[in-house]
Design brief:
Layout: E1 2-6, E2 19-23, H1 31-47, E3 50-57, H2 60-63, H3 78-88, E4 92-97, H4 100-103, H5 107-115, E5 120-126, H6 139-146, E6 151-155, E7 159-160, E8 163-164, H7 167-175, H8 179-186, E9 190-197, H9 202-205, E10 211-215, E11 225-233, E12 236-245, E13 258-263, E14 274-284, H10 292-310
Parallel strand pairs: 1-4, 2-3, 2-5, 3-4, 5-6
Antiparallel strand pairs: 7-8, 9-10, 9-14, 10-13, 11-12, 11-14, 12-13
């Protein structure tokens, strides 16, 4: 898959091709997004032209001032999103820089100066797609303005087990620790990739070593608590128990939640390595124990619970 970064206004060297283009932010690349992408690839194959997708970076809300004092937390940060796009089988991804200049385009300008400039033959979007200054453009305007040059394919809301699939819904489920429903909405377990970093080393001293994870991007972090997870290390998959939280049993608790995973049946040193955590099921809330011994007993119970959960998953 070709990856092309663009900033508006486009340069005279812009090289465009006839293409079917899916457009959106696509945070999560969830089942609804996958349907939009599938439709674009199908239409491109019928026409025997390029299948493409356009996403935006950074998130529009960061540029428009809708996020204060923090960066947006993503279900799929850009690096992971590109990996998901490639796995879908797209020919090309456009990453359009979202800046003040782009945000000021009228809907008409966006169609003429972005879509037509890129020779978009067919555009595929979700039913609630908006564009142009203040989001004034909608799918009806796409059809009206682009009618003589561009076909418009609108994908209706996608439902899974009576739930309307949306990035907003997935964020809510993640922050509630409802990982089973997240799996249903994404079509896969939620995952976070990060580097193993030096921690206090406390887990090893109590006989339950853990890997402390520093996420590589700004992910949505699930609700504090203990989870059954799968861990990808150097291409191999292991079972694990993940703790998200403040380690309240200890006096030197961190100021912000940390991510640490105990990998079952694993004894290698992986400091500095990149690993991927696949969140399977929430086990319990984080709690403060009266003693370290009581904490150890609970962790051993958590390990048993996690093994029982994970042996039932593929």
């Amino acid at each position: 898959m070709d990856i092309i970064r663009l900033t508006y206004p486009f340069s005279d060297e812009l090289q465009s091709v006839r293409q079917v283009m899916a457009i959106g932010y696509f945070d999560g690349v969830h089942l609804g997004h996958q349907e939009v992408i599938r439709r674009a690839i199908y239409a491109a194959n019928i026409e025997q032209i390029t299948s493409s997708i356009m996403t935006f970076d950074p998130h529009p809300r960061e540029v428009l001032g809708h996020v204060q004092h923090q960066h947006t937390q993503y279900i799929t940060p850009l690096t992971e999103k590109l990996e998901r796009f490639a796995a879908c089988g797209l020919d090309r991804t456009y990453i359009l820089t979202f800046n003040k200049t782009l945000s000021q385009l009228t809907p008409e300008q966006f169609i003429h100066e972005v879509l037509f400039a890129l020779q978009v033959d067919t555009v595929v979007v979700g039913f609630n797609f908006t564009y142009g200054h203040l989001g004034r453009g909608n799918v009806d305007m796409l059809r009206d303005i682009g009618s003589d040059k561009m076909k418009v394919n609108v994908v209706r809301p996608f439902h899974k087990d009576n739930l309307k699939v949306s990035s907003t819904m997935i964020r809510e489920k993640l922050r509630a620790g409802e990982m089973g429903e997240v799996l249903q909405l994404l079509g896969r377990p939620y995952s976070i990739t990060g580097q193993v970093v030096q921690g206090f080393g406390r887990g090893r001293t109590i006989g339950i070593p853990t890997a402390n994870i520093e996420p590589r991007d700004s992910y949505v972090i699930p609700k504090n608590g203990v989870y059954a997870v799968k861990v990808s290390v150097s291409g191999s998959i292991y079972h694990g128990v993940m703790n998200v939280g403040l380690k309240p049993t200890f006096d030197d608790a961190p100021a912000k939640p940390t991510l640490e995973v105990h990998i079952l049946d694993f004894n290698k040193s992986i400091y500095g390595e990149s690993i991927e955590i696949h969140w399977i099921e929430y086990i319990r809330a984080e709690q403060k124990f009266a003693s370290v011994d009581l904490l150890i007993e609970q962790i051993k119970e958590d390990i048993i619970t996690a093994e029982q959960i994970l042996k039932l998953t593929i």
